[in-house]
Amino acid sequence: MGLTAKIRTRDGWAVSHAVVTVTDMTGTQVLRAEADAEGAVRDTTELAPGAYTVIVTAVGYAPAASSAIVTASGRAEVGTVTLARQGGTELPPPGPWTIDPVHSSVAATAQHLGISSVHGRFTEFGGTIEIAPDDVAKSRVEAVIRAASIDTGNTMRDTHLKSGDFLDIERHPEITYRSTGLTQAGSDRWTVHGELSLHGVVRPVDLDLAYLGTGADPWGGTRAAFRATAELRREDFAMNYNQVLQAGIAAIGTTLRVELDIQAVQGDVLPQA
User: Quick check: 209 pLDDT over 80?
Assistant: First the structure.
C-alpha cells in the first residue's frame, strides 16, 4: 500500500528531495512525501480507493500535476514524473555557440536479430549553433561527424560498418547535418528541421529537441545543454545491406534511433581546459 514515484529531469537525472503532495477530489491534502537522493518516493500511508491529484514541486523546477487512481489494494503507482527546469522556455543568449565534443555524445541504436539492440557512438564530431537575436525560428545548427569514428565495442562489426555495405567511409568520410528551420513543440521542446547528408544521400531529417538549460562552467564560460532524438531508415540513405536468417528474421533492423546529448559553449571557440 502507499505511493511510489520517480522524479526525473527531462534528461533523465534524479531530482532529489522533490516534494510530492496528494489531494483528494475535494482538494484536501491526504499525503505529503519527499523524494530521496535518487529521486524516488516510497510512502506507506494507506489511501482509500478513488481518484486523486498528485502535485510534484522542487526548487528550480516548474510544478507538475497529474491524476492518480488508487486501487482496492490502497496502492498508488504514479510512475516517473518529469520536471522541466523553471524558465526552461528561455533560450540561450543570442549569438554563436560551439559544440563541445568532450562533454557531448552522438549515439545510435539498431535492432539486432529482432530481439535485442546494438548500441554505437561516433567519437569524433563538432559543430556550431547560432541563436538568432530576433526570430528564434531563424536560428541555425551545423554539425559534422567523422564516419570512421563509429564505435560499437566490436572491432569486426565496426570494420563492417565502415565498409561499402554501410557508411562507406572511403567515399563518404563525413556525415553532415544543416538545419533549415526551428518550430516550438512544447514548453521547452523544439523541432529542428534540417538536411542530413549520410552515405552520399541528402534527406530531410527532423530532430526532436529538448532544451535543458544554461549555466556557468568552471572555466569561466557559459554552457547550454540539449538532448535530441531522431529515427532514420537505412534504406532512405541507400544502405540496403542485410542478412536474413533461416527463421526469416533480419539480422539488422531497418531503422536506426539516434540520440544526441549536446553541450555547447557560448562563443565560437572552445575553452583550452
Answer: yes
| Closest C-alpha among 35, 45, 27, 50 to residue 5 | 35
Return the C-alpha torsion angle 261, 267, 272, 273, nearest 10.
-50
56-78 burial code (b ≥16 CB/10 A, e <16): bbbeebbebeeebebeeeeebeb
Average pLDDT for residues 2-14, to the nearest whole number?
A: 84
As a whole number of angstroms, the distance between CA 232 and CA 205 comes to: 8
Output the nine-digit C-alpha cell for 273: 581546459
Q: What is the pLDDT of residues 12-57, one digit of tens each?
A: 788 888 999 999 988 899 999 999 988 999 988 888 898 999 999 9
**DSSP assignment, residue 14?**
B
Question: Cell match 545543454: residue?
Answer: 225
The answer to whether 192 and 205 are in contact (CB under 8 A) is no
Whether pTM exceeds 0.70: no
CA angle, 60 then 63 then 68, to 5°: 145
Nearest Cα to Cα of residue 43 among 57, 54, 59, 28: 54
Q: Residue 219: which of 89, 98, 107 has the closest Cα?
A: 98
